[in-house]
Design goal:
The protein is an alpha/beta fold and 498 residues long. Helices cover 39% and strands 21% of the residues. It folds into 3 domains: 102 residues, 2-Layer Sandwich (Double Stranded RNA Binding Domain); 48 residues; 323 residues, tm_1862 like domain (pyruvate-formate lyase- activating enzyme), CATH 3.80.30.20. Helix 7 packs parallel to helix 8. The structure holds iron/sulfur cluster (SF4).
Length: 498
């Protein structure tokens, strides 16, 4: 796509707006004007009297040209964004709609965390109805998406109240999987040679865990939730899991945690022995993720497990006595359709897990062939949009509430990922991490420590610093004491404890 921007507006923001109408667009400087390549011109200016800002947008695609001009008065109350960004958003929205005949369900709300936007508006004193109105009028959300954002925000604000001062959460990364899913965008080792690294990785991880937990203690913080994620953490043997849990128990009493999650993930790695060990060490939440209940689709997306194996793993999880079970599904998988997805969600609801998470298919690093077949470049979302709506309605009638949500780039139909929960069983780590209301310390390859200072969740603005760990396990194994020391200094500096 060719994008020309002039005036006081952030170019990156305009690019994210472009992607609402042109999913997958790239903005290379060498792009040439030709058929099929959209050209967008954006200009923002203030009026000479300083009373308003005006955005002009034109979009040309092949022979069709659509233009829009939007003026926003500076005395118009804008709740979250700037007057310039609202003027540009509205003009892009109007021109894009006229050009493509499509009304994006999330309007011009482009960020990762719609719940945080809705929560900010609620926290400013506007009630539920006014907040929905702001989302519809300022950001052009459909009434359904505005209601979803407000419902998630209301739940998140309630859950954030569980946080104690000086608490943090801990993420432990196990970036290994039994095989690679065709759409995977994570760094996860899957070949036999790389999987042989697990023992060395675990040794390093336990040292890292030890120094991180003792630092948390020195900082005077308490750990409220622990999340062991991946990859596929249940790729570890019962003995390896036991070593990991024992190291944690040297510093943490699992009975004092608000939540302790072991993301099983792939059903083919879950055994009764592993979950017995997990339960004994205080795990309260486990994920068993089929993504779909179609054997054909599972094989097409390289999951290497069957629907039958999912049911076996789910029963093992149930019989383990672990309090909460989460089931992850993906709407809009390449080759999936509404009929299959709706049957899948119906069958999952029959199992009555406490958590169901519905992601929308997103491809980042997958092959071009998979991208083209995925519908990820469809602005309407087709069957995925119907599937997502169906999941939201069916879970509601089955007694679940949406409690956490995020959006990613390059998802089919620009749709959302939503966690649904039975009341009182929400995945707290997901909320604390996503809404940036608490520091998350991370250990392991590819993990990111997110330092957060936040006086009052959703009310005050958080101060955030991210510390990235080596991406690949082989790099992580080379991490030196000096690297760890530098990270520690940065953490102490952030908290004013140099
Ligand atoms: S289970 Fe998850 S991390 Fe592992 S290969 Fe599949 S998508 Fe990637």
């Amino acid at each position: 796509m060719i994008l020309n921007v002039s005036g006081n507006i952030n170019r990156y923001y305009v690019q994210t707006l472009c992607m609402v109408f042109f999913p997958g667009a790239t903005f290379g400087a060498d792009e040439e004007v030709r058929d099929g390549v959209p050209v967008m011109n954006v200009d923002v200016s203030s009026d000479p009297g300083g009373e308003s800002v005006t955005a002009y947008v034109s979009i040309r695609l092949n022979d069709k040209l659509c233009e829009a001009t939007e003026t926003v008065r500076l005395d118009e109350e804008i709740t979250i964004a700037t007057h310039e960004s609202i003027a540009v958003g509205r003009a892009v929205f109007a021109a894009g709609k006229a050009l493509l005949g499509h009304t994006p369900p999330w309007g011009i709300l482009t960020g990762v965390r719609p719940g945080k936007v809705a929560g900010g508006i609620l926290a400013s004193g506007k009630g539920v109805l006014k907040t929905k109105r702001v989302l519809r009028d300022e950001y052009f959300l459909t009434p359904q998406k505005a209601a979803l954002a407000v419902s998630v925000a209301t739940s998140e604000m309630k859950l954030a109240k569980k946080l104690e001062k000086n608490s943090c959460s801990l993420y432990i990364s196990i970036p290994f999987c039994p095989s690679r899913c065709a759409y995977c965008s994570f760094v996860s080792y899957t070949t036999k040679r790389l999987l042989s690294m697990i023992d060395d990785y675990l040794d390093k991880l336990l040292c890292d865990l030890e120094s991180t937990l003792s630092m948390i203690k020195e900082l005077g913080m308490t750990v409220s939730t622990v999340y062991i994620g991946g990859g596929t953490p249940t790729i570890l043997s019962p003995e390896q899991l036991d070593r990991l849990f024992l190291k944690l128990e040297e510093y943490i009493n699992p009975a004092e945690l608000l939540e302790f999650t072991l993301e099983g993930g792939r059903p083919d790695t879950i055994t009764a022995e592993k979950l017995r060990v997990a339960k004994e060490h205080g795990v309260t939440r486990v994920s068993v993720n089929p993504q779909t209940l179609s054997d054909q689709l599972l094989s097409e997306i390289g999951r290497h497990h069957t629907v039958e194996q999912f049911y076996q793993a789910y029963n093992i999880a149930r019989e383990s006595g672990i309090r909460d079970i989460n089931v992850d599904l993906i709407a809009g998988l390449p080759g999936d359709d509404f009929k299959n997805f709706s049957e899948t969600i119906d069958k999952i609801i029959e199992l009555a897990p406490t958590n169901i998470t519905v992601h929308t298919f997103s491809v980042k690093k997958a092959s071009d062939a998979l991208r083209k077949n995925s519908g990820v470049y469809s602005i309407t979302g087709g069957d995925a949009a119907k599937s997502v709506s169906y999941a939201q309605i069916k879970t509601k009638f089955a007694g679940y509430k949406p409690y956490y949500m995020y959006r990613q780039k390059n998802t089919v139909g620009n749709l959302e990922n939503v966690g649904f929960s039975v009341d009182g069983h929400e995945g707290l780590y997901n909320v604390f991490m996503m809404e940036e209301v608490q520091t998350i310390f991370s250990v392991g390859a590819g993990a990111v420590t997110k330092l957060v200072k936040c006086d009052e969740p959703f009310v005050s603005k958080s101060e955030i610093t991210r510390l990235f760990h080596p991406k690949y396990p082989y790099e992580y194994l080379r991490m030196t004491d000096e690297d760890k020391k530098a990270e520690r200094e940065e953490i102490f500096k952030f908290f004013g404890k140099e």
